Amino acid sequence: MRGITLRIGELASQAGVSVRALRYYEEQGLLTAERSASGQRVYPDNAVEQVKLIQNLYAAGLASRAIEPIMPCVRTGEVTPELLDRLMAERARIEERIGGLVETRDKLDAIILVVAESLHEGRPCPRD
Amino acid sequence: MRGITLRIGELASQAGVSVRALRYYEEQGLLTAERSASGQRVYPDNAVEQVKLIQNLYAAGLASRAIEPIMPCVRTGEVTPELLDRLMAERARIEERIGGLVETRDKLDAIILVVAESLHEGRPCPRD
DNA sequence: CTTGCCTCTGACGTCAACGTCAGGTTTTAG
DNA sequence: CTAAAACCTGACGTTGACGTCAGAGGCAAG
Fold it and tell me: Hey, is B42 helix, strand or coil?
């Protein structure tokens, strides 16, 4: 029933993180792993997606403490109404951050455009 | 010719950061301030926007070292072609991060929707 | 003029997300 | 069979973005 399984180094390279990071995630309760007879970690292939999600949640400004309660539900699909509130709260935070980043990108675009034009037309540097 | 000026505490509360953070930004060369006769920092009102931009750049995953060279150009509008490359590179990073966050938001949405439905219809927890 | 709040400059403390090293076992390639 | 490569568990080190405390000076109000 099981698809391909991965060892920690393979998962690390496929997910674009370090081996150390994966052990850290496990330590923080973000990522679970089976163990082989000799004690080596064995991951299902969908762990790649889970790791990427963790990275994205970090990028969204969440800390491990905030990610930990929501990862089990990503795996099992079970959510308490209490957790649902948290999910929606985090969703809102992410939306906020997306808005800020879009703003920032547009600001950079404005600068880039002005400069590109002034370079193109040989003008010194238009302002005001 | 100058509009309203702000003291550090006022700027901090208007920009939603701490006083310590503002001093830190100055230390890192991200934010410049005039000084009153007695040595107190005096900011123009547009410093509020600059601080928010700094926060957004932090949220985009940039470090102070990466923000420092681009802030002067935000103020003056002057950009070297070398800096233009950096701006475009950072812009690309920001776009990437926006993409990741949108993905993450959608993933959360999927979970929220499924749970909301199952709660609504009294089902245990649909999966597979 | 003093009381209370704001500001200043150091300087040390903190916390999260890893990096890195030590010392040992396991797996794989030849 | 053996050597290299990957893995294991501690455990200490690092870095960035501030927090916090100490000690001193500035400024509007009564």
Answer: strand
Residues with Cβ within 8 Å of B117's Cβ and at least 6 positions away in sequence, in order, are B123, B126
CATH of the domain at A28: 1.10.1660.10
Q: Is the domain of B15 the same as that of B51?
A: yes
Residues in chain B: 128
Predicted pLDDT of residue A127:
45
Interatomic distance A49 CA / D15 C1' (Å): 28
Q: Are residues B46 and B58 in the same domain?
A: yes
Cβ contact B94 with chain C strand, < 7 A: no
CA of A82 to C1' of D17 (A): 32
Domain range spanning residue B126? 79-128
Contact state of B104 with A53 under an 8 Å Cβ cutoff: yes
Instruction: List beta partners, residue A34.
Output: A42
For residues B53 and A104, the answer to whether their CB atoms sit within 8 Å is yes
Model confidence pLDDT, tens digit, residues B76-104: 878 888 889 999 999 999 999 999 999 99
Going by the DSSP 8-state scheme, the letter that residue B17 receives in this structure is: S
Counted domains in chain B: 2
Three-class SS state of A30: coil
Residues B45 and B2 in one domain: yes
| Contact at CB, B73 and A111, closer than 8 angstroms | yes
